[in-house]
Structures are given as structure tokens and as C-alpha cells.
Design brief:
Helices cover 70% and strands 4% of the residues. The protein is mostly helical. It has two domains: 290 residues, no CATH class; 212 residues, 3-Layer(aba) Sandwich (Rossmann fold). The protein is elongated and about 85 Å long. The relative contact order is 0.12. InterPro entries: AA-Vitamin_Transporters, EamA_dom, EmrE-like, P-loop_NTPase. It is a multi-pass membrane protein. Keywords: Membrane, Transmembrane, Transmembrane helix. Belongs to the EamA transporter family.
């Protein structure tokens, strides 16, 4: 039911945002650009205010003077500059084409993010930027702009660039302030800035509102600015930010079609080709990169598993990480290994610690943990759509929190850590021993059948599903292959050796590592 409702809210979001340029075009005939921008963002900000206050109270967040100044700056950039330019550009251009041009703002967010938040500018992002800019040039038609002086789309482009700056700067404090509060407060503050301009220039504020113009004003303020955002937040809640962000792919398509139906604007071949290139840049950047830069398995990132300086002295405790296939007995091996070594064992305990820090229950953390079922969708979210939506995936926040907890546990003392990509998180730490436990599929299925009380077919499906999610989780967050031998110090097939014998082999390997390094240290002394 949640998936179905999530899809409904994604469609509603796309429709609300996809009709924005059309509504602005219609409303722009009754109001000035500054007047309409003031009215729609003031009303929209007030509509979002209850959500913002509720979110801040729920998270017990108190905004400081610095936070209010920060939000005010965002309001100036977004409302007073970007959205005023956007309204002027829409008034002077084709609404459908304006929607396509503005949909390129995540491309500029990638560039701003490289310089401001130091996000990596990967080959995939560069491919996205190149294809999107080519598509943008086809849609905007620079030759026509020069020959005919049609500057409307250039103004929309300036609005898109400044909006991407707003999005990038918003990332710096969105975790503390929250999306609802950041949008609501910046909308209201920015609208008051526009009001000040109207006041000092003696521009119209409420004049022009009549029985005819009130409806497009209500639509742009309530449906586009308010309802659209609420639907998007609801879509995130029901289907996750990655899936919800697909509304931003649908939006320009919806705008192009509806602009043709409502405003009678022609759907040109240039618009279709340009939009196709922009979408291709977002969706196909990964496959294009793999086609242009074919890599062998050995060329993918490999962890440095060369023995670091290892000893059992205080301040440099031994940490054993256990990665494992589902049903292989890796958790049982890790627990018994910790008992033999006389050190703490951490598995779901890490999720409990993360939940306490983030104010989440263990069930809520488990729901998000290693839940990347489709790396293609999440790569789209990571490389493109989150830059348009401003949303932050809860999974990403939890992974960062898990990383922090794991590093703290490793510094605290010797321990055994199961899963959570601990081998990658601690890859630069000395005195870390990384295990991977595999098993025969039939042996694993029998263990799962006994533990979960299911039939063999169900057990096999569970094993395939969990292992796939672990592999996708590893590739998404680390760029490495889960289970690839070069990323571990020791790999064991528990179905061949048995769990008791695996424990003996692991203890022997750890002792050999320690003895080897101690001897090396003594030789160097």
C-alpha cells in the first residue's frame, strides 16, 4: 500500500511542479514579476510554516542567530534573485522550453558543489554535464537568441544557475535546519525582501487581484509552491527520496505536453531532442562511462590489505571485521571469536548506538540499513536528482553515523565487528584483520531453513535477496566489490571447515600476523 501511495504522490508532485511554468505564464499577464514572486512565496512559505515548526519541535532543534542569517541569505538568493529572474524569463519565453532549461539546474549544482562542498566531480558527473549542456544548447538555440534577441531563455538559465547556488549552500546546514524549515523560512524572508523592493520602487503589491487573476495566483501559491512540496515530502516518506526524486525527471515532460495543450505552444523537434539528451545525461551516464572507460575487475578500487604495523599495546587495539554471506554462519563465528579473544562483539549493537544518536528506534534503523535494493536508482539519486530536490537520503545519514560509531569503537579497544562495511571504514587503520565468510549455497539454505523456519525455496530467495542488497550497499557506498578476495585478509568457506575449525584457523592467522609484525618491529629496533 505504501508503494502504491508513494507512486500517487510522485505523480502529484510531477503534476504540481510540471504546471509551474504554465501557471506563472498565465499569472504573469496580471501581475508584475516582483509582485507575483512576492505573493506566491509569501503565501507558500506560510503554508509550509506549520510543517516547519512541527519538524523543528520534533527534532528539538533551536535555530541560532547564525542559522537565521544563513536562512536569510538563502532567501535572498532564491526568492529575490533566482525566482524573480525565473518569472521574468517565463514571461519572455516559451513556458515548455523554460521548464526544460530550468530542469538543468542540478548540472550547475554539481559544479558549485565541487567548489563549495568539495563533492567529487566524477567521470559520470562530467558526462551528465556535457550531455545536459548539449541538450540545453539545442533547446535554447543560441543562434536564434543572437539573431532575434530572444533573451527569455537566457534569463531562465541565469535563474537556474542561481537556484543551483541556493541548493548547494542549502546542503551545508540542511541536516540541522531541515528541508521544511529551510524552505518555509527562506521563502518568507525572501518574500519580505521582494516586498521591500516593491515598497521603495512604488510597485504594485495587492493591486491587480480580481475574480479573474485570483485563480492563477492561488494555483501558483497554494498548489505549486505549497501542495507540490508537501506531496514531494510525502512521496519521500512513503517511497524514499531516490524514488520520489523521479518526479523531477517527469516534470519537464509534463510541462512540455501541458504547455502545448493549455497554451498552444508547439512541441518542436529541437525541444524533444534537447530534453532527450538532458534525461540521457542523467540516466545513462553510468553505462556511457562503462562503455567509454571499460575496466577489468582488477582495475576497480582495491583495499590495501598489506599488514600494517600491528601490536597489542594500548592505543593500538586489535579489531577483527567479519563480512559474510547470508546463512554462512559469519555472525556465529564472529560472536565465538570475540569470546575466544575476550573482546566485545558488535553487530546490531552498532545500529542501537546509531539509533540513540539519531533519535530513531532500532526498527527504524534496521529498515534503512543496507536497504539499497536497486543501485541504479540510488546512483541516479546520488549523481543527479538529489541535487534538484534538495533531499538527503536517510540511508546516507545513517551510513555516516555508522561510520562514526565504528571508528569510535575501534579507537576504544579491541573488538570484533560484524558487517556494516567495517573493513572499508577501517581500511587505513593499523592492526585490523578483515575476514570474509562464504559457504556452499545448499549448506547456507539448510541453516536459514532451521533458523527462520521456512522451506528451502523461501530460504534460497532470502539468501539471494540479502546477498544482493549487501553487494549493492557495498558498491554504492565504497565503489568496491563485496566478497572480492583482494579486499580481505582471510576468506573461509564455513561449509567446508565447519564453524569450530574456522575459529581455530582465524585465531591461528591472527596470531601469525601479530607474531610476524612483532618480529619485524624487533628487527627494526
Amino acid at each position: 500500500m505504501n508503494a502504491k501511495n508513494g507512486t500517487i504522490y510522485i505523480v502529484l508532485t510531477a503534476l504540481a511542479f510540471g504546471t509551474m511554468e504554465i501557471a506563472l505564464k498565465i499569472a504573469g499577464s496580471s501581475f508584475t514579476a516582483f509582485q507575483l514572486t512576492f505573493l506566491r512565496f509569501f503565501i507558500g512559505g506560510l503554508l509550509l510554516l506549520p510543517l516547519a515548526v512541527k519538524d523543528l519541535m520534533h527534532r528539538h532543534v533551536h535555530l541560532t542567530k547564525s542559522d537565521w542569517i544563513y536562512v536569510a541569505i538563502l532567501g535572498i538568493i532564491n526568492v529575490m534573485f533566482s525566482m524573480v529572474l525565473f518569472q521574468i524569463g517565463v514571461n519572455k519565453s516559451n513556458a515548455g522550453l523554460a521548464a526544460i532549461v530550468f530542469s538543468c539546474n542540478p548540472v550547475f549544482t554539481m559544479i558549485f558543489s565541487y567548489f563549495i562542498t568539495h563533492d567529487a566531480l566524477t567521470r559520470q558527473k562530467i558526462i551528465t554535464i556535457i550531455l545536459s549542456l548539449i541538450g540545453l544548447c539545442i533547446v535554447a538555440d543560441p543562434v536564434a537568441i543572437i539573431e532575434k534577441g530572444s533573451v527569455g531563455l537566457l534569463i531562465v538559465l541565469a535563474a537556474a544557475i542561481s537556484f543551483s547556488l541556493y541548493t548547494t549552500l542549502g546542503k551545508l546546514r540542511i541536516k540541522k535546519i531541515g528541508g521544511s524549515a529551510m524552505n518555509s523560512f527562506s521563502f518568507i524572508i525572501g518574500s519580505f525582501g521582494v516586498l521591500a523592493i516593491l515598497f521603495f520602487t512604488h510597485g504594485p503589491i495587492l493591486s491587480g487581484i480580481d475574480s479573474h487573476s485570483i485563480w492563477p495566483l492561488i494555483y501558483t501559491s497554494v498548489v505549486v509552491t505549497g501542495f507540490g512540496y508537501v506531496c514531494f515530502m510525502k512521496a519521500i516518506e512513503l517511497s524514499g527520496p531516490a524514488n520520489a526524486s523521479f518526479a523531477f525527471f517527469i516534470k519537464p515532460v509534463v510541462a512540455l505536453i501541458l504547455a502545448s495543450i493549455v497554451l498552444g505552444e508547439p512541441i518542436t523537434l529541437r525541444a524533444v531532442i534537447g530534453l532527450a539528451l538532458i534525461i540521457a545525461g542523467c540516466v545513462l551516464a553510468g553505462p556511457i562511462e562503462r562503455l567509454l572507460f571499460k575496466k577489468k575487475l582488477s582495475e576497480y578500487p582495491v583495499l590495501d590489505t598489506e599488514p600494517k604495523k600491528a601490536s597489542e599495546v594500548a592505543g593500538n587495539p586489535l579489531v577483527v571485521t567479519v563480512s559474510r554471506e547470508f546463512g554462512s554462519g559469519g555472525r556465529a563465528i564472529g560472536r565465538r571469536l570475540a569470546k575466544e579473544l575476550g573482546v566485545p562483539f558488535y553487530d546490531t549493537e552498532i545500529m542501537q548506538m546509531v539509533g540513540e544518536r539519531e533519535g530513531l528506534s532500532l526498527e527504524e534503523v534496521k529498515k534503512q540499513d543496507q536497504s539499497i535494493e536497486n543501485r541504479f536508482i540510488y546512483n541516479l539519486f546520488d549523481k543527479y536528482t538529489h541535487l534538484a530536490s534538495g533531499a538527503v537520503a536517510p540511508k546516507d545519514e545513517l551510513f555516516l553515523a555508522e561510520t562514526s560509531v565504528i571508528k569510535e569503537l575501534a579507537e576504544k579497544g579491541s573488538c570484533v565487528i560484524v558487517g556494516r562495511l567495517a573493513n572499508v571504514i577501517l581500511k587505513d587503520r593499523p592492526n585490523t584483520f578483515n575476514l570474509f565468510i562464504a559457504s556452499d549455497p545448499e549448506w547456507a539454505a539448510r541453516r536459514v531453513m532451521l533458523r527462520e523456519k521456512v522451506d528451502k525455496a523461501t530460504a534460497r530467495r532470502m539468501i539471494a535477496d540479502v546477498n544482493k542488497r549487501r553487494s549493492e550497499h557495498c558498491r554504492y557506498y565504497t565503489g568496491t566489490f563485496w566478497g572480492y578476495a583482494a579486499n580481505y585478509d582471510l576468506l573461509l568457506k564455513s561449509s567446508e571447515w565447519g564453524i569450530p575449525e574456522c575459529i581455530k584457523l582465524i585465531l591461528s592467522a591472527i596470531q601469525h600476523r601479530l607474531s610476524l609484525e612483532v618480529a619485524k618491529d624487533e628487527a627494526q629496533a
